[in-house]
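Quick one, tokens below:
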């Protein structure tokens, strides 16, 4: 390995070990974007390689092997039936996990492309591999726009290799690049944070639509300001849930700092909840604001909001909670079939206190009458990614941290 690549690689290994950027005690969370860009790129490359590496199962459990074969036979027997009729068998295979992979790969290799069960095998294999790679995917998500850009370069490089293979009529290489393309596209759909309403070139994602937003570039001669918001500022009605702001500033005639240049409002988990430009202390141009429910684009002229240019440009697919920081916060996430509400209540020693509730198509439901689930999450868990589904947020994976109510012994 070239000597000049050793330092970025060492930095990348350290970055992957702890993607939450260092900060002073009690300071607001800041995203990995403050780490060296080259180190982030090396880390992202390593994560993509890890995702593309086929999972190996050295010694599948014998009892699982028999069950897997039975479920595969069931799918083959029902291959002429409706896709939904085979869902129980697919779900059972996904539940078995990586032990099912060798048999599933063998069944897929033997099946003809026209067989009805080919789609079942591909879906199950993908779901099992995605679950096994969840930690890798989440680390790539937290690298924000750098991770997306590295993925884009990989897709373009693979496209070029595929075209060369087709010109040379190398069937084996064509099959390899086609499979790699599917894997990279699948990874892309998991890593991207925002589903945009206007796709255009789907591989061109503005950094503002990624976790951590666009890197803040301070103009030469300007001052770099990073400031924690006061409780009154953070709780401003109708405002975004920010905990700190970072911006460029110039000194005015009276010696005071005036915002002039790029601006970022940081959320409690290292997310960029608002991004834009100031000109002589006034908002100007296009601003992007991001919540757990939507991404909005707003336009300002001389500090005034242009209402008819305000639009929703996308919907977040996932969000992040920083349990190590444990900043008090709360969000209600509206979903197609209901809503999920969560609250971070703060630190409790080495733990973060949290509660959540949800409803599905219940017009009589209210936050006041809701049943809340309380959790005590180890702060050592750091940043955790949660996906937003059609009926709720996947907090079920945190079940091990639920605070169980004490049994009622008054009747004994």
């Amino acid at each position: 390995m070239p000597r000049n690549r050793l330092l970025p690689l060492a930095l990348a290994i350290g970055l992957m070990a702890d993607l939450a950027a260092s900060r002073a005690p009690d300071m607001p969370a800041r995203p990995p974007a403050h780490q060296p860009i080259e180190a982030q790129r090396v880390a992202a490359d390593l994560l993509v390689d890890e995702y593309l590496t086929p999972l190996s199962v050295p010694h599948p459990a014998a009892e699982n092997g028999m069950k897997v074969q039975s479920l595969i036979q069931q799918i083959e027997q029902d291959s002429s039936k409706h896709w939904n009729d085979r869902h129980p068998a697919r779900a059972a295979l996904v539940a078995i996990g990586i032990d099912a992979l060798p048999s599933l790969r063998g069944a897929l290799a033997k099946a003809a492309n026209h067989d009805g069960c080919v789609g079942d095998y591909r879906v199950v294999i993908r779901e099992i591999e995605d679950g096994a790679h969840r930690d890798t995917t989440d680390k790539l998500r937290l690298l924000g726009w750098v991770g997306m850009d590295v993925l884009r370069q990989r897709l373009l490089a693979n496209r070029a290799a595929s075209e060369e293979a087709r010109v040379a009529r190398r069937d084996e290489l064509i099959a390899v690049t086609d499979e790699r393309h599917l894997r990279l596209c699948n990874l892309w759909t998991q890593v991207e944070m925002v589903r945009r309403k206007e796709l255009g070139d789907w591989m061109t994602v503005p950094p503002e639509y990624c976790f951590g937003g666009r890197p803040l570039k301070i103009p030469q001669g300007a001052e770099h300001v990073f400031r924690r918001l006061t409780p009154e500022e953070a709780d401003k009605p109708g405002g975004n849930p920010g905990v700190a702001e970072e911006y460029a500033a110039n000194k005015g005639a009276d010696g005071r700092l005036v915002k002039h240049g790029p601006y970022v409002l940081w959320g409690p988990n290292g997310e960029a909840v608002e991004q834009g430009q100031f000109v002589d202390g006034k908002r100007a141009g296009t601003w992007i604001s991001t919540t757990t429910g939507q991404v909005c684009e707003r336009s300002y002229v001389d500090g005034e909001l242009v209402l008819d240019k305000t639009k929703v440009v996308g919907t977040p697919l996932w969000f992040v909670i920083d349990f190590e920081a444990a900043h008090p916060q709360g969000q209600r996430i509206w979903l197609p079939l209901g809503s999920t509400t969560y609250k971070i209540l703060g630190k409790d020693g080495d733990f973060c206190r949290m509660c959540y509730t949800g409803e599905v198509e219940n017009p009589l439901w209210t936050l006041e009458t809701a049943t809340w689930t309380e959790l005590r999450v180890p702060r050592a868990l750091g940043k955790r990614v949660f996906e937003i589904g059609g009926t709720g947020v996947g907090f079920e994976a945190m079940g091990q941290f639920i605070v169980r109510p004490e049994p009622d012994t008054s009747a004994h």
